[in-house]
Amino acid sequence: MTRGTQRINKTLGNEGNSSLISGKKLIEIQDYLPFLRDKETTMENGIIEPLVLRFLAEPGDVNFGGKVHGGAVMKWIDQAGYACAVNWCGGYAVTVYVGGIRFLNPIHIGNLVEIRAKVIYTGTSSMHIAVDVFSKKPEKKEYKHTTHCIIIFVALDEDAKPVAVPHFDPSSEEEKKLSRYAIRLMDLRKGIEAEMEDYKK
């Protein structure tokens, strides 16, 4: 662990833990997924526009079952989250937590993939990014929601020390719902951290 990471974990507390939300906690996460589907939002309606990446799933992304490898999807999620985070903070940022990940549907090789990333909550130096992956056959019109997760990034200065980020102030009902979702996940992580304490020694 680098000194920069140690500083980040100290700053974040439980946000620095890398465990995934699982079991019955997924039921609570599922309640928020409808707010993340089919949201082509714009600045004109008062909602912060999500960062969107689109590309084709290539043969090199295949798993043993002939679909896109979950590791490839996680890489795409991290890249989209990073682009969203650095755009928000205007500087460098690092991933400190990936949680609540749901693989909802498989992605097929040759599918057109769309990744939407948007800030849903900010701390002093942290940015909570909701990332959702969609895919479809290139010739089709409708996208299918394939993956959802939350990534937390921390903005760093040139000395790898956490630096303050612009405050996210939710204005729409959708943004307020997602901000409450981020806060609820933070509370859930505290319980997970307590459960894991005996196994970290």
Could you describe the 3D structure shown?
The protein is an alpha+beta fold. The chain has one domain: Thiol Ester Dehydrase, Chain A (Roll), CATH 3.10.129. It is built from four helices and five strands. It has a five-stranded antiparallel β-sheet with strand order 1-3-4-5-2. The chain is globular, with a radius of gyration of 17 Å. The two termini are 16 Å apart. 34% of the residues are buried.
Overall pLDDT: 81
Give the strand order, joined by hyphens, for the main sheet.
Answer: 1-3-4-5-2
User: DSSP strand (E) fraction?
Assistant: 25-35%
As for the number of domains, it is: 1
Helix content: 25-40%
Quickly name the level 1 CATH class.
Alpha Beta
How are the elements arranged and paired?
Blueprint lengths: L2 H10 L12 H6 L20 E6 L13 H20 L2 E12 L8 E11 L3 E11 L7 E13 L16 H24 L5
Antiparallel strand pairs: 1-3, 2-5, 3-4, 4-5
Kindly list the characteristics that best describe this protein.
201 residues, alpha+beta, Thiol Ester Dehydrase, Chain A, 5-stranded antiparallel β-sheet, 4 helices, globular, disordered N terminus
Please outline what is shown here:
The chain is an alpha+beta fold.
